[in-house]
C-alpha cells in the first residue's frame, strides 16, 4: 500500500491510525499542502484524486480517497482488530460520532476554508471547534466508557484524536470538555496513535519532531 499523506492533516492521521491498529505496513508519499502553492494541486495528484485532498491510499489495485471510505475498506477487508463494534446500536453511535467530527467540525476549520477567512481565521476555527465540541461532550456523556463508545477503540476514536490536536493548535480552551480530554489522553498512550502522530512522520519538519 502507498499512502499519500501530509504530516499535519487530520484526515491523513485518521487513516495512519487505522493502518497502524491493523498492522498494515505501507509506504508514504508526502504531499505538502503549503509548499509550491500546495502540492495537492499538481496535475499528477489531481489525476489520482480529483478533489485534490489528502489522504489517498493505493491498496489492492485500487486508489481510494476520503478518510472514512478508506477506513471502512480496511475494516471490510482486514477485520482484525475490529474498529466498528458488532452491536448495531454501538456501531451506529461510532458512526454518529465519526460523522459529527468528519462532517460537522473538521471541514469548517480546514486549510481551504481558513484561507478564505483571512485575519479572522483563528477566531473562526476556535468558534467552529468549540461549538462542535460542546455537542460532542454531551453525546459522549451517554456513549463513553474508556473511549468514545464503550471500552474498545473504534473509528470514532480515530476521528477524535486528530480533532483535539487541531483544537490545541488553534488554542481552543479544552476546560469545558473533560470527557473529550480524558479520552484523548488515554488514546495517545496507545502505540498506534503514537506512531501515527504528526510529530513522527517522514515529512515532519525538524522543529516539530518528537
UniProtKB/TrEMBL annotation:
Pathway stated in the Swiss-Prot or TrEMBL entry: Amino-acid degradation; L-phenylalanine degradation; acetoacetate and fumarate from L-phenylalanine: step 5/6
InterPro entries: Glutathione-S-Trfase_C-like, Glutathione-S-Trfase_C_sf, Glutathione_S-Trfase, Glutathione_S-Trfase_N, GST_C, GST_Zeta, GST_Zeta_C, GST_Zeta_N
UniProt domain GST N-terminal: residue ranges: 1-82
Keywords, alphabetical: Cytoplasm, Isomerase, Phenylalanine catabolism, Transferase, Tyrosine catabolism
Entry's Gene Ontology BP terms: glutathione metabolic process; L-phenylalanine catabolic process; L-tyrosine catabolic process
Catalytic activity: RX + glutathione = an S-substituted glutathione + a halide anion + H(+); 4-maleylacetoacetate = 4-fumarylacetoacetate
Record's subcellular location: Cytoplasm
Domain GST C-terminal intervals: 87-206
GO cellular component: mitochondrion
UniProt entry tagged with the keyword Isomerase: yes
Protein name: Maleylacetoacetate isomerase
Amino acid at each position: 500500500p502507498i499512502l499519500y499523506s501530509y504530516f499535519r492533516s487530520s484526515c491523513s492521521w485518521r487513516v495512519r491510525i487505522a493502518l497502524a491498529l491493523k498492522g498494515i505496513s505501507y509506504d508514504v508519499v508526502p504531499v505538502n499542502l503549503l509548499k509550491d502553492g500546495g502540492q495537492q494541486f499538481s496535475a499528477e495528484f489531481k489525476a489520482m484524486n480529483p478533489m485534490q485532498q489528502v489522504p489517498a491510499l493505493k491498496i489492492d489495485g485500487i486508489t481510494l480517497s476520503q478518510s472514512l471510505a478508506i477506513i471502512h475498506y480496511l475494516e471490510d477487508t482486514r477485520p482484525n482488530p475490529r474498529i466498528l463494534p458488532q452491536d448495531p446500536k454501538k456501531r451506529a453511535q461510532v458512526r454518529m460520532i465519526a460523522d459529527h467530527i468528519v462532517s460537522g467540525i473538521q471541514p469548517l476549520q480546514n486549510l481551504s476554508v481558513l484561507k478564505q477567512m483571512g485575519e479572522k481565521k483563528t477566531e473562526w476555527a476556535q468558534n467552529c471547534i468549540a461549538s462542535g465540541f460542546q455537542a460532542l461532550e454531551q453525546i459522549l456523556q451517554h456513549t463513553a466508557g474508556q473511549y468514545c463508545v464503550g471500552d474498545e477503540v473504534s473509528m470514532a476514536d480515530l476521528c477524535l484524536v486528530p480533532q483535539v490536536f487541531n483544537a490545541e493548535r488553534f488554542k481552543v480552551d479544552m476546560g469545558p470538555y473533560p470527557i473529550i480530554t480524558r479520552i484523548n489522553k488515554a488514546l495517545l498512550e496507545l502505540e498506534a496513535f503514537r506512531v501515527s502522530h504528526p510529530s513522527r512522520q517522514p515529512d515532519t519538519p525538524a522543529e516539530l519532531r518528537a
